[in-house]
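ERR on first pass: missing label on line 2. Operator R.T. fixed the label and resubmitted. Corrected input:
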Amino acid sequence: MANKENTKKSGSVMVVGGGIAGIQSSLDLAESGFKVYLLEESPAIGGTMAQLDKTFPTNDCAMCVISPKLVGAGRHLNIELITNAEVVGLSGEAGNFTVQVKKKPRYVDEDKCTGCGACTQNCPVVNVLQMAEEPDIQLSTESLLKVTPILDKYRGQKGNLMPILQQINQTFNYLPADVLTYISIELDVRLSDIYNIASFYNSFSLTPRGRHTIKICMGTTCYVKGGERLYNKVRDEFGIENGETSEDMRFTIESVACLGCCGLAPAIMVDDEVYGKVKVSNLMKILEKYK
Amino acid sequence: MINIPDIKAFKKLRNELTGGRDPNRRSVCVCGGSACIATGSLGLIELFKNEFKDHGIEDEIDILVTGCHGFCEKGPLVVIRPEGIFYPMVKKENVPDIVRETIIKGNAIESLLYTDPMTDEKIVYEHDVPFYKKQKRLVLGNNGLIDPMVIKDYISVGGYGAFANALDSMTPDKVIEMVIDSGLKGRGGGGFLTGLKWKLCKNAKGEIKNIVCNADEGDPGAYMDRSILEGNPHSVIEGMLIGGLAITASMGYIYVRTEYPLAIQRLKLAIEQAREFGLIGNNIFGTDYSFDIEIREGSGAFVCGEETSLMHSIEGLSPEPSQRPPFPTESGLWGNPTNINNVETWAVIPLIIGKGSKYFASIGTETSKGTKIFSLVGKINNSGLVEVPMGISLGEIINGIGGGIPDGKKFKAVQTGGPSGGCIPASLMDIPVDYEKLAEVGSIMGSGGMVVMDEDTCVVDIAKYFLTFTNDESCGKCTSCRDGSESMLNILTRISEGKGKPEDIDLLIELGEAITDASQCGLGQTLSNPVLSTIKYFREEYNAHILDKKCPAHVCKELVNYSIDSEKCIGCGVCLRNCSVGAITGNIKEAHFIDSDKCTKCGICREVCKFNAVLVE
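pass 2 clean. output:
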């Protein structure tokens, strides 16, 4: 008997997550006659889309799309919102689940609150800054001696982050993590912004690089004339892929878009020197002189 | 600092420098472009100087390290002026002969002269070489005459004259009017009317205005901007000075890609020299025009060639493109009206102001005016930079100037416009080259790259190559570009591996069109062009890959096999020694054999074999 009870389809659905996808599913399910429990971790439904200005690819206004759905989900008779809550346990099987929900206290009586907003405006502690803990970074004297002149040179200039990163990349031959944290504090730029830029450009490296850099041109002309074979040769010879450094720190290989030496295709550049009309058979001879 | 109080004094200095130049003075011009340096041109200079000393003629002869002459394939280039005797591929041991025979006696040395690959004739003078003969070198012309590191050289061939005139007697509106009348269109790819852009920027609201020179020449296969910056940096500075005057901007930025160290070095020097002459700075020549130029280096990101990305990069932000409008002319660098043009466009400006807009407009076609520099590269005899009037036919460029395809191979297609462009097949060689015609056949002018392909080039492989490039360089902001390029690349890879399905071609077309519609910047909007244009003109080659599992050009590794022709092989053993996987076996003086299980199809055996005994099928 008890078994039979358990296999009975309950006819209600729980949607976990009150973002745009969750809201739309709840609305569709509710419209088709299901009782929907819409569970959301944060105090309000809406999710990321409610924070966006425009949406891809049509550039439609995000709020214009989502607000009718928010209201719809809020007052649909078949939808019960459970906000500020999370799922802690799940049992049963398809058609008859039992969900354990942990609802966090709201400290406000939901039945009486009309959402007028008066309390938020009058709360005296609302504007207290929540400072992130500043990482304490100790640079070695050696690094400090290298970084300080670079920072001093560009401090206060508009758009100085790029030249600073370029010089650090040049001085250290890569971008050391502790130096990046240090300049983030010194320049008052978010570390995430620095990493965004540091990881975007091909010529920045976040790992130490070899004594010499082999740039293999993969421009159209060099490609048509066999540049890829040069790349494969170096790759196989040193066992490293694009952007990696050989174990003895001798070479870093990079495939670059175009060296602008198309008249001499296929071309490679070792450090600052360009070699043209390179053949697979004489490639290793060229590299021999770089120790 | 050289004291030049006003424009009059500057004009006087110009006249002195121009007059002081003896057109008949003997000089040796050695090309100092990147390509010629790579083949050892700088080593020749010392040798020439020593030879002059030995013969006691060092005072009678100038030796110039000039900018790029354009004929990069044949470097190092040496030209003896005033006659213009032309020696390509000069080696160190040739120098004493050149000095003794040509410079002292005035005779050309037959064995060192250039041989025309079409007719096998020896050619003495630079202006008779077919590569140069059919060009119209307005922008590049001075490259071979002056030392780019000496500002006086530039002034002595008329440099900064246009700027002095504009500063002296033209209003900003007059300058803009001249640029509009000339019909100049942006040389960077978009093809927007330059004068109109200037006007928009000048009339935009804002106290501070900026101009930017886009020298982030990222298109693989194009290097004219590099050549101009290395060979004649002052022409770009002069163009920007005129632009600043017209737009009433006081600050100019030059954004150069980091892959061009020599260009950055020469540009820095040129700016320093211009500052010394009072051409850059506050109150130039006592007028109230102040202008300064700053160099910003890129760090290797293709998308930074897109104008909004480039400005974000200068500002130190993440270089993702942003939605236009607002256009940079309204709200650009730090929210101020900003006018962006590329290097070649700026270098044309002094010419228009100096020689007049009518002169410029008289060259070219109805809709595309003036000359355009192309980098003619790939499977072609005379590769290098060519400057031709707009409207010249593609065939004329490839056969007339380029000297046709080497090794008697068949011409297949030419790829123009880089990763945003398309492939134009041999059957369309008669079309005139201008912005509209190229767009009509599914390609673009772009920045002027022309990569020539012969029968050994596989179009599926080329399409795959460009997609790999754009997929790698996509900044990732738009889903359509980021994921769409990935999907197209997967399909192309599948086809090149012989696993393609018949419906793949239509799928590629559908995907390509969707990506074009849904992407924000030029990179995404155009990335499918190489695929769509190759499908349009070479559909049977795609079919061969998909249906017959064959690569007609023998390029796609999974679809070819290497073997040795036992009749041609003499058993020299060169291939055996060079094979890095040990796939070749055979005894000396007996025909060798390739073990296809071990062979990685790297092609090195074919490259080293002197007897054409390695076959690819």
